[in-house]
Specification:
Arc Repressor Mutant, subunit A, 5-stranded parallel β-sheet, about 290 residues
């Protein structure tokens, strides 16, 4: 039997081919999140295309196409693939619910799909920036990237931040639980850390700051839906004007700043004399590790 040696060229070709498949799967996950298809399947197992179409308010042909692709990819299961297409019933497996549906579950990574779509939309402008040497403002990445970034951080910011990270800072917990304290969440994005802090320390004044206007608007809506009392401010960390904070947090933010030293200097001045500053975890990878 003749065996053909696999070359480095073959390996790279296969790597790019598989990367394309995985990227397209993420796009299909984006559709499932954006259209509420995973939520619909979770709410009612064993649906056919007609039922999903009605529940999610989408076209039946597209419902069938999406269900078939998702089952082939192993993201959902089909009862009997040998039955006619209109009769096949599909279910979201219980052990996929945290990953794809439950937004504060430790394994919820579906928002990576939204991030990818946002990045793809901004790539032409990034290419122009490569030629000109200019930057690409955060807002140009759009709502998909904003929601994806907020969503991928939400599980850790809603739980690990107050249940683990802040507990590791000596003497801080006693102070935060003692009564009227002030906490600043700088670079708050969609507000999930700010909301988590307000839930954990209901007697504290918690303020979220962000330079992106759309993020602040989303954070206010999220806080209202969560029923917590927080304040959000649109502004630049370099021009931080408030002071007297017991704790200042920068989570998933410092590495994105154009003037990090100036921002840190301004935030240091915002602390009370015996206040604390924490830069937080600086990468999605460390956030994902902290969930396991």
């Amino acid at each position: 039997m003749c065996h053909t040696a696999i070359t480095r060229e073959d390996e790279l070709t296969e790597r790019i081919f598989q990367g394309t498949i995985h990227t397209l799967e993420l796009y299909s996950i984006y559709l499932g999140k954006e259209l509420g298809l995973y939520d619909a399947l979770h709410a009612e197992p064993r649906q056919n295309a007609e039922q999903l179409s009605a529940r999610a308010c989408i076209d039946e042909r597209y419902a069938r196409e999406w269900l078939e692709q998702q089952s082939v990819a192993g993201l959902i299961v089909v009862d009997d693939p040998g039955r006619p297409a209109s009769e096949r019933r599909y279910t979201l497996p219980e052990d996929h619910v945290g990953v794809l549906v439950e937004e504060e579950h430790a394994t919820h990574v579906a928002p990576f799909a939204q991030m990818l779509v946002g990045i793809a939309g901004a790539l032409p402008e990034v290419a122009r920036a490569y030629r000109s040497g200019a930057g690409v403002p955060y807002e140009r990445y759009g709502a998909d990237f904003r929601k994806g970034q907020g969503g991928i951080n939400r599980p850790a910011f809603s739980a690990d931040l107050t249940n683990s990270w802040l507990l590791a800072i000596p003497d801080l917990q006693q102070r935060l639980q003692s009564g009227a304290v002030r906490i600043a969440d700088v670079g708050c994005g969609e507000g999930w850390a700010t909301i988590g802090l307000a839930r954990a320390y209901p007697h504290a004044e918690v303020v979220g700051y962000d330079l992106d206007r759309e993020s602040i608007d989303s954070a206010r809506r999220n806080a209202a839906e969560a029923g917590v009392e927080v304040r959000f401010v649109h502004g630049d960390a370099v021009d931080f004007a408030e002071d007297g904070f017991d704790l200042v947090l920068m989570l998933e933010t410092l590495h994105d700043l154009t003037q990090p030293t100036a921002a840190l200097r301004a935030l240091r001045g915002a602390l009370a004399q015996d206040g604390r500053a924490d830069r937080g975890r600086e990468s999605c990878r460390s956030l994902c590790r902290s969930r396991r």
